[in-house]
Amino acid sequence: MGCEHDHDEDHGHDHDHSGGVNRTTLLLTAASGLLLAAGFACGHLLHREDVEPVLFILAILAAGAPLAPEAVKAALRLRPDMNLLMVIAVIGAAAIGEWHEGATVIFLFSVAEALEQFSLDRARNAIRKLLDLAPTEATVKRTSAAGERVEERVPVEAVQVGHTLVVKPGEKIPLDGEVASGASAVNQAPITGESLPVAKTVGDTVFAGSLNEHGALEVRVTRLAQDTTLARIIHLVEEAQEQRAPSQRFVDKFARYYTPNVLFAAVALMVIPPLAFHQPFGEWFYRALVLLVIACPCALVISTPVAIVSGLASAARQGVLIKGGVHLEQAGRLKAIAFDKTGTLTKGVPEVSDVIPLNDHTPADVLRVAAALESRSEHPLAQAVLRRAAAQGVAPGVVGDFEAFPGKGARGNVEGRPDGSLA
Fold first, then answer.
1. Domain containing 34: what range?
2. CB of 285 within 8 A of CB of 92?
3. Quick one: 50 and 112 in the same domain?
4. CA–CA distance, 380 with 192 (Å, rounded to integer)
5. What are the beta bridge partners of residue 403?
6. Bridge partners of 165?
């Protein structure tokens, strides 16, 4: 319908606690469709003209029940919207006995409204899933009354700035902070987009939602749960969804002026010919109703915001955060794209591409020594070397006196040769 479809206001969409379309509304829409089908069947197949209008009336009441209160609100605010125009059209159809037309129109409108809300809810749920990146509880290191150091699991909301968290290998970091003790490799791809784990030692910054892959860390909290980098990203994306894209602003402006004009034209079409030219009122009343239904671009007003929000939601489910419809529309005008991060177009998993030996040694000799050292490491590059050795059928050598240097490398005696020679 040509109308002011302001998504910032209450549209009368009922919701359940899960954020989806209200089940009652869905049931009423489904019931309206079944009654509509039954009405057509009675009229065209069974020739029960006495039952046909009753089924159409029930179909109108079922689909119109959620719309009628919103139509009344729109009339009282003197701001016609889709609900008001649709109710007027259906009442007019009923007044001239076109029950099947009224039932068909309001059922299709009810289906469109349900699909719109379903799309919006999917978009909101995609953003809410970002919250699952960060754990809801944290292990806090405290000093007991007896002076002993104890670890206690608490909700992240109860953690204060300055508290020390214990993050074990394989756990997600609950809050933004600074490494106070320990060293590890942290996968922070969900936050920064870096495809490879980053070595973290004392003094380094870590982010909520990133994964501690190997060593145990003690993290001094620097931001509360509502102020973490992840929380701010989610907030920015939610704000971006509220920003109108150019096409949305055009549709809103168009509808603001177009809707009252359509309503005025329908009233004029209904009143002027009978009064000024003595035309039959019933015929022009019907034509005014046809104008209301046909001249209102429901598809344009509904589809534009739904398409944009659905695009943002689809990208979010794929791990791509687009800051609003403005940027989504700009992407459609791009002629060339440059990607600067490994992991954007690739898997982000390192692999050994070539083994180039020196002197008279073979690639297998190099792999045997490298795999021996890397067999004691859990670093992603170490795993790449081991995968290459296994693929080539090379057994790692025996390593002794192994020593790891986080962020730098490793050292050890391979097959009893501390100088690392291959001979």
1. 23-128+236-328
2. yes
3. yes
4. 18
5. 411
6. 140, 219
Residues 185 and 44 in one domain: no
Q: What is the pLDDT of residues 312-364, one digit of tens each?
A: 777 777 767 676 677 787 888 889 888 766 566 666 678 898 999 988 888 99
pLDDT tens string 58-103 = 999 999 888 888 888 888 887 777 777 778 878 878 887 888 888 8
Q: How far is CA 202 from the centre of its chain?
A: 35
Closest by Cα among 106, 108, 14 to 57 = 106
401 is catalytic: no
Closest among 98, 101, 120 to 109, alpha carbons compared = 101
For residue 405, count other CB atoms closer than 10 A to its CB: 10
Six token digits for residue 224: 């509360």
Tell me the whole-structure pTM to 2 decimals: 0.51
Query: How big is the chain, counted in residues?
Result: 423
Examine residue 356 and state whether it is found in any structural domain, yes or no: no
Catalytic one among 340, 360, 401, 419? Answer: 340
Let me know if residue 336 belongs to a domain: no
Q: Could you give the angle at which helices 99-128 and 229-242 cross, rounded to 10 degrees? A: 160
